[in-house]
Structures are given as structure tokens and as C-alpha cells.
Specification:
5% strand, 12 helices, single chain, globular, two-stranded antiparallel sheet
Length: 307
């Protein structure tokens, strides 16, 4: 066990000027230095971050950090209910685990700024596509909305969901291309307002899964457009998995293979159980829905005038 005080390693130092191989080594060493062997020794941590033992993409690195965090922390938040004499509240009881998760979260947010894959072809040519890890691996995000995409849907050059896999000259495709810049402006604004999972854990009286789940269904909360959409669909919203399924809902229902069905089921079960991991998706969904409404009322013209 190490002291509670961290060794003051800036998470950005683990990534700055490094490729994924060097970053995985730096992250592993930082975890051991700060938290002892909470997640194993440095070699075993590197094995989780680079399961193929060689350079990977930043998307893969992000996914592997999620695997690392879930593997060594319980599915529920490590809290207990205590009473202050009047109110029953949840209090974080494992500061060591909290700091470990905080460190992982900070690394993941920094990875968002790293260069990402520009081609979304068949990334499984050298792997076992039937392995359990691939069931949720590479559910990337549509370029024109917030929905996830199972790997068999990838085109050679475009990463688009079934709703937006349109010809480049299609009016709706071109409209959404024009929306992208404004979407990311709104997402940055939301990022500065909506508490991150780290901040929710720091408050100690909130369960981070429940916090984001409730926000998805609160028209007066941080995600009013998401809440309005989900509540209008008429779908079950009783559990976090239900909410995630509703968030991914599409009116288009093409034939899918049994492998794809397994991939979706694993995705919903996994990211439903760890709902706080959907924080980036929720920001993006709210941004797309909000900007879509703006463009219906002249937002495109206003953006052009502003530019």
C-alpha cells in the first residue's frame, strides 16, 4: 500500500509526445507509482492496454482503459449509505479506488485530443472476430450523430450509422455536414457545464450511474433535448440498459447477422451497467439534438453570418 498523497504525476505527461506503446508504458508506471499494484504490476497493466503487444490506435487505448477500470473496480460505486442524523446519504468509503478511477478518467479525457483513425475499414483482419472482446470492441461513433456503429457496418472511408449512411449529395447528408462545427462548439460548452464522472464522485453524495441516468430523463436538467427525445419514443426506460437502447434507437431496421446481434447485446449490457461511461455520448447527443433544432430555425444562416 502506498501513501494517500499522489506522487504528483500530471496525467498529460503520460501522453505528451508519445505513441500508444510509450503511452501505455508511462500510464502503467504512473499507476503503480501512485496506487501500488491495485491493477497489477506494470507489466500486466501494459498487457491490458496493449493486448496484442504492439502499437494500437488511441480508440483501442481508450477502450482498454475502460476494461482496466472495470476489471479492478466493482460494478457499483464503492459507497455506503450513512445518516447524518436527519438524512440518509451515500458516502465514498474507498479513497484509494476513487483516486484510481479519477486518474483513469483524466487519461481518457486527454486521449480525446489525440489523433484518431481516419479510415474505418476492416480492423479485424488479424484477429479472432468471434472472441468475446470483439463483441463490444470498435463500436465507434457515427460522424453525423451520436449513435454507435458495430464493426460490420463500417464502410471503407466513412463511419456512418444506418440513419446517416447516405449519398454525399443527399440533402440531409449535406445539412448535417454543415452542422458539425456548431455541434462541437455546443459540445465544448456542455463540457464546461455538465459535471464529469470525476466531479460527481468528488461530491460523494451522488451515485454517478444514477446521476447521468436521471439527467437523461429530466427535461429541466443538463440534457433537455435528450430527455425530450427519449420520453417521446414510447420505449421502456426502466433501467440504464433501456435508456441506452432508446438513445441508440433508429427507425431503420435492416437485417443484421447473429454476430451483430451479439455485439449489440454485449454493448448494451456493458455500457448499461457502467452508465457513467456514456458521458461523452450524452454530451454529443445533446449537442446534435440542440443544433438540429437550431438549424430548423435558421441556425445555419446565423452560423454563416457569425463566421
Amino acid at each position: 500500500m502506498i501513501d494517500d498523497d499522489l506522487k504528483c504525476i500530471d496525467p498529460s505527461e503520460c501522453l505528451m509526445g508519445k505513441n500508444t506503446v510509450l503511452a501505455s508504458k508511462a500510464i502503467a508506471e504512473a499507476i503503480v507509482l501512485n496506487f501500488g499494484e491495485i491493477a497489477g504490476d506494470a507489466g500486466s497493466i501494459e498487457g491490458v492496454l496493449l493486448p496484442k503487444g504492439r502499437s494500437t490506435t488511441w480508440e483501442d487505448m481508450d477502450y482498454s482503459l475502460v476494461v482496466l477500470a472495470k476489471k479492478h473496480c466493482p460494478k457499483w460505486d464503492p459507497v455506503e449509505k450513512i445518516s447524518d442524523g436527519e438524512n440518509l446519504m451515500e458516502c465514498f468509503i474507498n479513497n484509494h479506488t476513487f483516486r484510481f478511477l479519477e486518474f483513469i478518467d483524466n487519461i481518457r479525457f486527454l486521449i480525446e485530443k489525440q489523433p484518431h483513425r481516419k479510415s474505418y475499414g476492416n480492423v479485424f483482419s488479424d484477429g479472432d472476430e468471434s472472441a468475446p472482446r470483439y463483441k463490444i470492441h470498435h463500436h465507434l461513433t457515427c460522424q453525423l450523430c451520436w449513435r454507435a456503429i458495430p464493426w460490420r457496418q463500417y464502410g471503407n472511408n466513412k463511419c456512418l450509422c444506418r440513419d446517416h449512411d447516405l449519398p454525399s449529395r443527399h440533402g440531409e447528408y449535406r445539412r448535417r455536414i454543415r452542422m458539425i462545427q456548431r455541434v462541437y462548439e455546443v459540445k465544448r460548452e456542455l463540457r464546461s457545464i455538465v459535471p464529469t464522472p470525476v466531479e460527481i464522485r468528488q461530491k460523494k453524495i451522488f451515485n454517478q450511474n444514477n446521476f447521468y441516468l436521471n439527467m437523461c430523463l429530466d427535461k429541466m436538467g443538463y440534457f433537455p433535448f435528450v430527455a425530450q427525445r427519449l420520453l417521446s419514443l414510447g420505449l421502456p426506460l426502466e433501467s440504464s440498459e433501456d435508456v441506452l437502447r432508446a438513445l441508440e434507437y433508429s427507425d431503420k431496421h435492416p437485417r443484421v447477422s447473429s454476430v451483430e446481434i451479439e455485439a449489440w447485446d454485449a454493448y448494451f449490457a456493458d455500457f448499461g451497467a457502467h452508465f457513467w461511461l456514456n458521458y461523452p455520448k450524452l454530451l454529443l447527443a445533446e449537442a446534435w439534438l440542440r443544433v438540429d433544432e437550431e438549424f430548423k430555425h435558421g441556425g445555419s444562416r446565423r452560423s454563416q453570418m457569425k463566421g
